[in-house]
From TrEMBL:
Protein name per Swiss-Prot or TrEMBL: ATP synthase subunit a
Keyword list, A-Z: ATP synthesis, CF(0), Hydrogen ion transport, Ion transport, Membrane, Thylakoid, Transmembrane, Transmembrane helix, Transport
Pfam families in UniProt: ATP-synt_A (PF00119)
Membrane topology: Multi-pass membrane protein
Gene3D superfamilies, A to Z: ATP synthase, F0 complex, subunit A
Transmembrane spans: 35-54, 91-111, 131-150, 187-209, 215-236
């Protein structure tokens, strides 16, 4: 059942609807149209910024090029710390793509008045506000660390399931199912909860309270992107090294 609330965005008065979607029928598939629309926007924004930052590369960077180089250095350090100095380089693009896509998606939900665009059903929101997006990102992460472990250790990778004792085989297998579940529901739950909290506060105290809460939402959205990318890199590092570890973040 849809939950309808009045929400005042900094630029617009709109409804917040949970549980309603714009569907596209493609053969036997039913696609969430609103998720594709906002995801394409995020991807387009990232491609545009990348193009503008690299179209005239200078030896002494400034402006957008300087910002992008700083972002690349940040992502490179993140991957190096979690995966290891010897193995991290091939995984920088994957970890960086995860971080940037989630970061821009989260912020787009907080900064862009998507609700100005009216749809036949449902409404536009951050791509990470939909469980399908977060599950897809989590499954990609699972495939990545399986590939990392198998490509680096061969069939020996599967020995981890019976280490340190074969008795732990069911638990070690279950861990591979809980990792994507944890990643997807953490991200989805935090982004959806943030939008619902802002909507409720706007409804109750529409003038002053929502603004600092929305600023806090921007901070937590950035933290969620960092946590997801850090955990993804940590899982890849564990698969390469061949031993388990405690979940960080």
């Amino acid at each position: 059942m849809a939950l309808n609330m009045l929400m005042i965005h900094p630029l617009v008065l709109a409804k917040l609807e949970v549980g309603q979607h714009l569907y596209w029928q493609l053969g036997g598939l039913k696609l969430h149209g609103q998720v594709f629309l906002t995801s394409w926007f995020v991807i387009g924004a990232l491609l545009l910024v990348s193009f503008l930052a690299t179209r005239n590369i200078q030896r002494v960077p400034s402006g957008l090029q300087n910002f992008m180089e700083y972002a690349l250095e940040f992502i490179r350090d993140l991957a190096k710390n979690q995966i290891g100095e010897k193995e991290y380089r091939p995984w920088v693009p994957f970890v960086g793509t995860l971080f940037l896509f989630i970061f821009v998606s989260n912020w787009s939900g907080a900064l862009i008045p998507w609700k100005l665009i009216h749809l036949p059903s449902g409404e536009l929101a951050a791509p990470t506000n939909d469980i399908n997006t977060t599950v897809a990102l989590a499954l990609l992460t699972s495939l990545a660390y399986f590939y990392a472990g198998f490509s680096n250790r061969g069939l020996g990778y599967f020995a981890k399931y019976i280490e340190p004792t074969p008795i732990l085989l069911p638990i070690n297998i279950l861990e591979d199912f809980t990792k994507p579940l944890s990643l997807s529901f953490r991200l989805f739950g935090n982004i959806l909860a943030d939008e619902l909290v802002v909507a409720v506060l706007v409804l109750l105290v529409p003038l002053f309270v929502p603004l600092p809460v929305m600023v806090l939402g921007l901070f937590t959205s950035a933290i969620q992107a960092l946590i997801f990318a850090t955990l993804a890199a940590a899982y890849i590092g564990e698969a390469i090294e061949g031993h388990g570890g405690e979940e960080h973040g």
